[in-house]
Design goal:
alpha/beta, two-stranded antiparallel sheet, 37% helix
């Protein structure tokens, strides 16, 4: 019985790890739908998107100001990888991790059809809202306010 319990637990843990999406920071992963205890902001961007280029400094500022309770992640809309992705991140001065796979299928939502698009995920892992257009640090702060108790 003990062996069966250990095998079952190992299988469950492996399944959880398989749902993780890696980022450009080896220390950071995203598991769609899993409670992280922190807000997660996922921003879709592209180098060719002028509003995205204007928004990146705001996202950098927001990420540094709220690092204790928010994880900001990016998604390159064009699906770039490797050195090309790193070059675009450097060109835009992106200081937050970028997901190496698009999370939209795992989140059960359509891929954004316009940029920039930002997903707001609550600490319980549930998608709270999808924001279209460029966001400011102040606007994002409003979106992560906990409801009054």
């Amino acid at each position: 019985m003990r062996t069966l319990t250990i095998l079952l637990l190992t299988t469950v843990l492996m399944a959880c790890e398989q749902n993780q999406i890696a980022t450009t920071d080896r220390e950071v992963h995203f598991t769609p739908g899993a409670a992280s205890g922190r807000w997660v902001i996922i921003n879709y961007w592209a180098k060719w998107c002028a509003p995205c280029r204007e928004e990146i400094p705001e996202l950098n500022h927001f990420a540094s100001e709220h690092a204790d309770r928010v994880q900001v992640l990016g998604v390159n809309y064009d699906g770039l990888q490797g050195d090309v992705l790193a070059a675009d991140m450097a060109a835009l001065d992106i200081r937050f991790p970028v997901l190496l796979a698009d999370p939209h299928p795992a989140l059960g939502i359509a891929r954004p059809s316009a940029l920039p698009a930002t997903l707001v995920i609550a600490p319980d892992g549930k998608l709270k809202e999808i924001l279209l257009g460029p966001q400011t640090a102040a606007a994002l702060t409003q979106h992560i306010q906990e409801p009054a108790q």
